[in-house]
């Protein structure tokens, strides 16, 4: 399904994108993601397609707002039955609850359900309308970290089973990783769109890269281009990267590298390709890893598994040598722009 919506107020948006199976639109808070969903649902004035010109109640859309908006005075089955008509409303509602794994919770009120269970009740209610498109607003916002992955796996499996295309908006890159298709919203437009595997590997701009979790972003200049790749100078550091036919020596570029793609190496390898020796200036424990800041000719953010520190705590002021493989060095021609990811 192709979506194209233009919105003037309360923010300016001009969004064109594809919705395929479970699609995630990723963007910063305040970028207008929730407003886009309300426009598609017919809840605020906008120009666009599909469903343009139809009143909200006439649009074949299921909509799950943040918080799910369940009626607190109605039981689970009554919430699901609310949009249904006819004498068999209860049977239909019970069937839908059973399909989302909540048949035994049908008599419970929302305050007696967990966050994940309330989400599935809201999903069943949205699907009761037999929608052609399902809209989810920040579906991870009410979920705790301990059960988030399990609940999301169940949610995505359920919407796949129903065969309804889904557009979920979020600022959570983790949800985007689980999508069939994704897009990034920047400055009111789609900055990049494609398969998550492609986009997380090859962002088209520094803005997209930051949203996708890249913490290392450096200005550089292309020094050499050959059939095997290129060399980019970043703060005096020659970095080898993979080949790109559209770049030439002398061009200003942006280099982005994931924190987890830096690895420790021996000082004896300091002259090897893509090795830099820097001073450790900051560290903190982050789960089962260390989040490390290294300073020298440039500042590097590194995520290091604690087991790689061979049982000793890193010490501020130590000199570390780090390496990054050429295939993990992403060279971007410019900040911004719009692109479909390669391979889509």
UniProtKB/TrEMBL annotation:
SUPFAM superfamilies found in the cross-reference section: MOP-like, P-loop containing nucleoside triphosphate hydrolases
Top-level taxonomic group: Bacteria
Keywords: ATP-binding, Nucleotide-binding, Transport
Keyword Nucleotide-binding set for record: yes
Ranges for domain ABC transporter: 1-212
Listed InterPro entries: AAA+_ATPase, ABC_SmlMolc_Importer, ABC_transporter-like_ATP-bd, ABC_transporter-like_CS, Mo/tungstate-bd_C_term_dom, P-loop_NTPase
SMART domains cross-referenced by the UniProt entry: AAA
GO MF, any single term: ATP binding
Protein's name in the database: ATP-binding cassette domain-containing protein
Species for this entry: Acidithiobacillus ferrianus
